[in-house]
Design brief:
InterPro entries: SiaC. By secondary structure, the chain is α/β, with parallel strands linked by helices. It has three helices and six strands. It has one domain: Transcription Regulator spoIIAA (2-Layer Sandwich), CATH 3.30.750.
Length: 128
C-alpha cells in the first residue's frame, strides 16, 4: 500500500502513514470542517492494512496541539483499531506526545490510555 502523506493546514494535521514501515503519524491541529471527509479514507486504509498484519511491530505517534470533539471520536476509532491489532498478536505502541506545559493534553492522553486493553500507550513530553 502506498504511503499517505498530507501536509498540515490551518485546520488539519500533518498525516504521515508509512504502511511498509508500520509507522503512522498525526501531528498538529485537528479541527477540519468535515471530519469524515478528511479522515474517512485515511481510517479506511489503515483499518484494511491493520487487518492484514500478523506478528508485526506497529507504531502510532500523535503530536496534537489542539483537536475538537469530532477529532476525538476519530482518535477513539484509531485507538480501537490499534487495540484490536494488538489483540491479534501484533506489537502495537501508541505514543501520545505533548508539550511539557500542556497539562490538558497530558490529561487527555492519560484518559485515552485507559481505553486500551492490549496495545501499549506511552505519554511522551515533546523535546524542544
Amino acid at each position: 500500500m502506498e504511503p499517505i502523506t498530507l501536509e498540515a493546514t490551518k485546520r488539519c494535521p500533518e498525516i504521515n502513514f508509512d504502511f511498509a514501515a508500520n509507522t503512522f503519524l498525526i501531528k498538529g491541529e485537528s479541527y477540519p470542517e468535515d471530519v469524515d471527509s478528511f479522515y474517512g479514507e485515511i481510517i479506511e486504509a489503515l483499518e484494511t492494512h491493520l487487518e492484514s498484519q500478523q506478528g508485526a511491530t506497529i507504531r502510532l505517534d500523535l503530536e496534537l496541539i489542539y483537536f475538537n470533539s469530532s477529532t476525538a471520536k476519530v482518535l477513539m476509532e484509531l485507538f480501537e483499531m490499534m487495540d484490536a491489532a494488538a489483540e491479534r498478536g501484533n506489537d502495537v505502541l501508541v505514543a501520545w506526545h505533548y508539550e511539557a506545559d500542556d497539562d490538558n493534553m497530558e490529561e487527555l492522553g492519560g484518559e485515552f490510555a485507559e481505553e486500551l486493553a492490549h496495545a501499549r500507550f506511552e505519554l511522551k513530553v515533546l523535546e524542544t
